[in-house]
Amino acid sequence: MPTENKRDFDAVAGQWDQEPRRLKLAQDVVEAMRKAIPLNSGMYALDYGCGSGLVTLGLQPFVGHITGADSSPGMLEVLNRKIEAQGLENVATMPLDLEKQNLERSFDLIVSSMTLHHVRDVPALVASLAQALKPGGWLALADLETEDGRFHDDPTGVLHHGFSRDFLTGEFARNGLDGLGVVTAASIEKSAADGSSRRYPVLLCVGHK
Fold first, then answer.
1. Residues facing residue 66 across a β-bridge
2. Is the torsion defined by CA of 96, 98, 99, 103 positive or negative?
3. Burial of 126 from C-beta contacts in 10 A (0-12 / 13-18 / 19+)
4. Where are the beta strands (DSSP E) in 16-148?
5. Closest among 94, 101, 36, 85 to 65, alpha carbons compared
6. What is the pLDDT along the chain (209 residues), one digit of tens a residue?
7. What is the largest CA-CA distance in the chain?
8. 152 by DSSP, 3-state: which?
């Protein structure tokens, strides 16, 4: 994406986990994934756009190995510190340009949370992730349901204002995935400038190769 519309996640990486709302969102998304997917210790998984690794580490106990991939060195540094501090041997990190879809490995499970709205060509991304699944693998993508653009206080790097259920299932089906399902994985409550409170649903779309 053009640098003038790309959020500097390195600058906020150190404070990312200090927002309780983010911690709760990750917990809710992980729980929804656990309910929707038969996770097992034989799975080799990828968390695409992992950020500080909240979802990565939430899934870690339930899979054989998980790699957190992100374009932000600062975020990956935060996750690497967590991996070292906890002595985790089944978690790795990988720098990845989220716009280029250049996955060279295959996975039993690919997940992503709140990354799609930062990616310009989402259909190309879904196609690339589906292609990177092993036969029998699972794809699980979570992001905001279509909203009016008021969710983000800072719109820098926000390329989509959420996604509809039909769009997500349509892209999954177009790439040969079946067993499709969409659930509301979480609901984020935010205060507006006028003092009112609004809830923004986060959808989780799941498909099987």
1. 45, 91
2. positive
3. buried
4. 44-48, 65-70, 91-95, 107-113, 133-144
5. 94
6. 334 445 667 676 667 678 888 899 999 999 999 999 999 999 999 999 999 999 999 999 999 999 999 999 999 999 999 999 999 999 999 998 877 767 888 999 999 999 999 999 999 999 999 999 999 999 999 999 999 888 887 777 788 899 999 999 999 999 999 999 999 999 999 877 777 788 999 999 999 99
7. 50
8. coil
Pairing of β 197-208 and β 107-113:
unpaired
CATH superfamily of 12-208: Vaccinia Virus protein VP39 (3.40.50.150)
What is the Cα–Cα distance from 29 to 15, expressed in whole angstroms?
Answer: 21
Residues forming a β-bridge with 207: 139
The full length of the chain comes to: 209
Name the pTM for this structure: 0.91
| Tokens standing for residue 143 | 């992001």
Identify residue 8 by its one-letter amino acid code.
D
Whole-angstrom Cα distance, residue 111 to residue 30?
A: 10
Which two tokens mark 67?
A: 């790699």
Give the phi and the psi of residue 166 in degrees, each rounded to 5.
Answer: -65, -40
How far, in whole angstroms, is CA 196 from its chain's centroid? 28
Number of separate helices (H) and strands (E) present in the chain: 6, 7
What end-to-end distance do the CA atoms of the chain give, in Å? Answer: 29
d(CA 167, CA 123): 9
